[in-house]
Amino acid sequence: MVGPLEDAVLDGNAIGGLLIELFGTEMTAAVGTCGVCGTSGHVAEMAVYRPKLGTVVRCRVCDNVLMVFVEVRGVTCVDLHGLAQLA
Amino acid sequence: MEGTAVRGRLTWQTATVSAVMDETPTVRTLSFEVPDWAGHRAGQHLDIRLTADDGYRAERSYSIASAPGEPVAITVERLDDGEVSPYLTQDVQPGDEIELRGPIGGYFVWDPPADMGPLLLLAGGSGVVPLRAMLRHRARIGSSVPVRLLYSVRRLPDVIYHSELTAEPDGVQVSYTLTRQQPPGWTGYARRVDQAMITELAWPEGQMPLAYVCGPTNFVEAVAADLVALGYPPQRVKTERFGATGTP
Asked: What is the pairing mode between strands B45-51 and B97-104?
């Protein structure tokens, strides 16, 4: 099972559905590179926090914010600023 | 980098509950008839969405408990302070309709024969659910891949799929550790999963094993670190954390 608690650290598996919605394709097996420390890893392995406001994805090594997703009136704002690469 | 949001094809649909089965006093398996199901892989999950009368929505992800080709099923553990799980484990009846979307996930999946090597499955509590889908898949396709499952729970009555796991099909070895309470005469493990236990049970790294670890975040972190310390390449250790409370 994935993801019942708001304050728990999850991983990228938990946002597979959200990512398909946003990117139009399966993304948990994609590889992302941290823009700060350069660590590369599967999206499934990234640290995911889901407070009520939205979703924050952080680097497991340096804690840098890699991705932020916030839904406002039915529109999801996507910030991928912390990623050097996502493929 | 910048990204543009594109609408995907993952759409919410209305499924009908076809069966409910109690696994333990707090865990229930729900089977669904899903009108438009693309077919799933072992290890994937689906999202469920409940909408209250006032429009408030709660969404949760649940691992798929059934093998590819079987009717879609999930196994849900009741969290007493949960928004969704009490409804799914206590109120839902066959014939009820539920909104869901899936299948989801391309990382924590087992796709034989492409995914080669003996399987090491490590479950904490209800983290056993996607691993059970893998075991059922293995049986259905007649795979002879050897499997070891280490399943950590607090007490014996917390074991999900107990009768199914007790059957231990050929080539599958199931070990339990009961971390809180053991029945009289218990000869299995009685502590949290640790390096010594993993060293005893894990396939030697030279056999190119493939490990799947699923459970609460702290369980997964500890077990994955132990496996890597044992020489397992990180890319052969697939993890899924569900962030629940406590120690399984």
From this structure: antiparallel
Q: Give the count of beta carbons closer than 10 Å to the beta carbon of residue B8.
A: 17
> Does B88 share its domain with B133?
no
Both B127 and B229 in one domain: the answer is yes
pTM: 0.93
**pLDDT of amino acid A63:** 96
Give the integer Cα–Cα distance in Å for B145 and B114: 12
Q: Shortest Cα distance from A20 to chain B (angstroms)?
A: 6
**Total domain count, chain B:** 2
Give which of B145, B167, B133 is closest to B29, Cα–Cα.
B133
pLDDT, tens digit, 9 for 90 and up, residues A13-30? 999 999 999 999 999 999
> B74 lies in which domain range?
13-104
Structure tokens at B32: 């669904």
Nearest beta carbon to residue A17 from set B7, B101, B238:
B101
Residue B201, domain CATH: 3.40.50.80
Q: Are B27 and B160 in contact (CB under 8 A)?
A: yes
In angstroms, the CA B157 to CA B154 distance is 9
Is B204 inside a domain boundary? yes
Ordered by start, the domain boundaries in chain A are 10-86
ipTM: 0.89
Q: Of B57, B241, B247, which to mutate for an interface test with A (greatest number of A Cβ within 10 Å)?
A: B241
Residue A18, C-beta contacts closer than 8 angstroms, at least 6 positions apart: A55, A69, A76
Does pLDDT of B153 surpass 90?
Answer: yes
Q: Is the pLDDT of residue A49 over 90?
A: yes
Nearest CA to A3 out of B14, B105, B132, B148 is that of B105
Strands (E) located in chain B: 13-24, 27-33, 45-51, 57-63, 73-77, 97-104, 119-124, 147-153, 172-178, 210-215, 237-241
The whole-angstrom distance between A43's CA and the closest CA on chain B is 9
Among chain A residues, CA nearest to B124 = A1
